[in-house]
Amino acid sequence: MPSNLYALYLSRAARANLDIGLAAGRWGLTEEAVTRQLSQLEPPRTGLEVLQQLEVGDQILAANGGPQPRVKRGDWASARLQEASLWRVTRPYFNDPSMTWPAPPNRPEERYPHRFGIEQIEQLRDVDKVQIGLVGLDAMHYSANVGGLPVPVLDGSPVLSSLGELGPGETEDPGFLVLDGELDARTLTSVRREQRKLRAGRLGLAAAADCSLCQSTVPVDCLRIAHIKRRSECSEQERRDEANIMLACTLGCDHLFELGYIYVDAAGMIRASVRATTSATPAVAQAVGRLAGRTCTAYGDSSARYFAWHRSKAAS
To answer: Deepest in the core among 13, 193, 241, 263, taking most CB within 10 A?
Structure first.
């Protein structure tokens, strides 16, 4: 099941309850927290609505030990979080008023009834922008200011990889890259979990296949299983719909389609977008010109609505 990543900041009191929550396999929030309006989200929603959108398989990075939260947005860009716990959601939102965590001394009736199931995947220390990026830090900062609610970061399941970005003490030179410490940095990035199954269903054991756009036969490692309708805009069902995918080669077709330089019209023909004719460089215009007028082999009755969605975005 595809999953989303959320940032959840643990206050000092919440951090004290973490071991209990992990042992019980659940996390809970107060009535006060879930009534908050998260106006910076798009679209805005309440804390309760955020909890209700959690799905089994979603992952939450719960962290603590950050800077003072009451600072302006963006001031956490260089923040370092002392420790973090990466969770997988095992049960969607439910309401349970039973006593799981000790009530705060000043609120003896508190029960943290708004809950979801969790299991810990990994513990991390000294988390900064290398691990979760500036978007992740911004979401964590926002969570710290809205009562420790989970704040969505990005689409996809977080995994550890060897990707990094320039940080303090790093310089980039045309001849040599000088960095402090090890070359590999661990970071949380996204992986599309349905890709393997869709790829196997479309390509099987083939060594080569045709691109749906340029019709060139290329090795399968030069092909992407590309969503026609942008994946982040898809419903769960649309992400799984094979009519919403096509084979797009990495020799240029996938990128030109993804960025909206080309689109497929209602007759299945590839066309140059306004962007390609007004803002593209000569090299991009030439690449688009080689595709314009061709028939997209992925176009059909079942995929037409997805191409129509892409066409509306490319034209905007």
So the answer is: 263
**Model confidence pTM above 0.90:** no
Distance between CA atoms of residues 230 and 243, nearest Å? 13
Q: Which residues pair with 164 in a beta bridge?
A: none
Which tokens sit at 116?
């979801």
Output 203 or 82, whichever has higher pLDDT. 82
Residue 315, H or E segment? helix 304-315
User: What is the rounded distance in angstroms from the CA atom of residue 287 to the CA atom of residue 261?
Assistant: 10
Helix, strand, coil: what percent of the chain each, to 5?
30, 30, 40
Model pLDDT for residues 164-203, shown as the tens digit of each residue: 343 444 333 333 333 344 444 445 544 455 555 666 667 7
Query: Which of 2.60.40, 3.10.590, 3.10.320, 1.10.1660 is the CATH number of 4-162?
Result: 3.10.590
* Torsion angle in degrees (nearest 10) through CA of 278, 281, 287, 291: 0
Q: What is the DSSP string of 24-87?
A: HTEEEE-HHHHT-EETTSSS-EEHHHHHHT--TT-EEEEEE--S-SSS-TTTTTT--EEEEEEE
Q: Are 81 and 63 in contact (CB under 8 A)?
A: yes
Domains of the chain, residue spans: 4-162, 195-315
At 183 the pLDDT is 44
